[in-house]
Amino acid sequence: MREEIGSKILKLLASSSGFLSGPTIARKLKISRAAIPKRIKGFRTLGCKIDSCAGQGYRLISVPDKLLPPFITMGLKTTIIGRQVFFYPKIDSTNSQAKAIAGQGIHDGALVITDYQTQGQGRLKRQWVSPPQKNLLLSVVFCSLVAPSKVFQMTLFASLAICKSLNALFKIKAGIKWPNDVYVNNRKICGVLTDVATDQKRVKWVVVGIGLNVNAAPSFEPELGSLATSLKRETGRAQKRPPILKRILEEMDCLYKRFLSGEITNLRDEWLSYSIILGKKVTIFSDGLQETGIAETIDEDGVLILLTPDGERKKIVAGDVSLRIQETGVRRQKSEERNHNESSLS
Ligand code: BT5
Questions:
Q1: How far is residue 60's CA from residue 257's CA, in Å, rounded to a whole number?
Q2: DSSP E strands: which ranges in 200-339?
Q3: Beta strands 85-88 and 110-114, pairing class
Q4: Which has the closest alpha carbon to 224: 188, 252, 181?
Q5: Cα separation of 281 and 62, whole Å?
Q6: Is there a contact between 163 and 175 (Cβ–Cβ < 8 Å)?
Q7: How far away, in angstroms, is 191 Cα from ligand 1 center?
Q8: Could you tell me the pTM of the whole model?
Q9: I want to staple 102 with a disulfide (CB 3.0 to 4.6 A). Which of 18, 162, 179, 205 is the partner?
Q10: What spacing in Å lies between the alpha carbon of 86 and ligand 1's midpoint?
Q11: The sheet that has 181-184: what strands, in order across it?
């Protein structure tokens, strides 16, 4: 895909700390000087602050909190994810759109992103709600040929990348609730939805959708009030979305490349280190049935191993199940810790 001239100009300005003259920009990008002022004007209209000075040229001061492709790809340090961007101001669902274009020769790691979803999807036909222009709503299309059993590992990147990004950018301690939700301080900050298309024994594509609450107040949806949180709530102030998005894409890019090179065990260990369910009492809901036990571990294929009260180890596949962490399990863990400390003292 050829990169648009405007994006190239913006990237060049972003990579320079001082002014860049029109002739320098034209020479570096092999474009005509006449093409530059129009693009600069366009970016100013979108909210970019760009200084201009006679004889010196242009200097980029700041970009707005907009998710337009040039603001995403500018300075993005990835080689696979987000190299192709499809932005929609409003759409039904980024996962639906990503699925619609997945088979049409788009690049591995293509990004579908929007400012507002009218029918945001959760798992099991649940809804993902998000007010316009506040949060991150995106889907990444993976087109590498992998075996169906490896799909869950691919979806690990998303939740792991979110945890690592929130930690690196805001020192926020985020944890993963199997199979793929991200929690901060016992509230959900991010949900991940994976769609897959298989062709005989191969996966044709995997779409990993991410909804991350950035600036929406949890009260945007009264029912979610005490269940959800956002970065604004956790950090105490509104945050710009493009730098957060870029960090997430960069973390995903790095994890994806590790996955492609066969580094499965290390990835799983890293993912497990962020798990908030291991050792806890959990209840699994599936097809109207429920099963309670201790979440013992998650195997390499992403299957949860549940230790039931009668000592049986059951394998729970992520597919169509929901999981609830039992409060008693948390108390139980605390009391176990207390017991452990007491016995250590004696
Ligand atoms: C998920 O489902 O958590 C997956 C959500 C994935 C959303 C992204 S947005 C971009 C992409 N395009 C899409 O159409 N979807 C993906 P699940 O585990 O089923 O959780 C859904 C439940 O989370 C709902 O029933 C609500 O209880 C809760 N919920 C809905 N919106 C929320 C929000 N903004 N923050 C926290 N919780 C929310």
A1: 32
A2: 202-212, 281-286, 289-298, 304-307, 313-316, 322-325
A3: parallel
A4: 188
A5: 48
A6: yes
A7: 5
A8: 0.87
A9: 205
A10: 21
A11: 85-88, 110-114, 136-142, 202-212, 187-199, 181-184, 174-177
CA of 276 to the centre of ligand 1 (A): 18
Q: What is the pLDDT of residues 71-106, one digit of tens each?
A: 898 889 999 999 899 999 999 999 999 999 998 889
For residue 9, how many other CB atoms are within 10 A of its CB?
A: 26
Ligand 1 atom showing the smallest separation from residue 188 Cα: 36
Q: What is the CA(144)–ligand 1 centre distance, in A?
A: 26
Q: How confident is the model at residue 3 (pLDDT cuts 50, 70, 90)?
A: low
Phi, psi of 85 (to 5 degrees): -125, 130
Residue of the nearest CA to atom 15 in ligand 1? Answer: 121
Ligand 1 centre to CA of 81 (Å) is 22
Q: Residues in the chain, how many?
A: 346
What is the dihedral sign for C-alpha 209, 213, 215, 220? positive
Tokens 């059993």 label which residue?
149
Phi/psi of residue 84, nearest 5 degrees: -125, 125
List pocket residues of ligand 1, CB cut-off 6 Å. Answer: 93-95, 117, 120-124, 126-130, 137-139, 181, 188, 191-193, 209-211, 213, 224, 228
Given a cut of 70, whether residue 339 has pLDDT beyond it is no
Please report the atom of ligand 1 found closest to the CA of residue 138. 10
Ligand 1 atom nearest the C-alpha of 98 is: 12
pLDDT single digits (tens) 121-172: 999 889 999 999 999 999 999 998 778 888 888 778 899 999 999 999 999 9
Give the pair of three-digit tokens for residue 168.
């690196």
Ligand 1 mean position to 128 CA, how many Å? 4
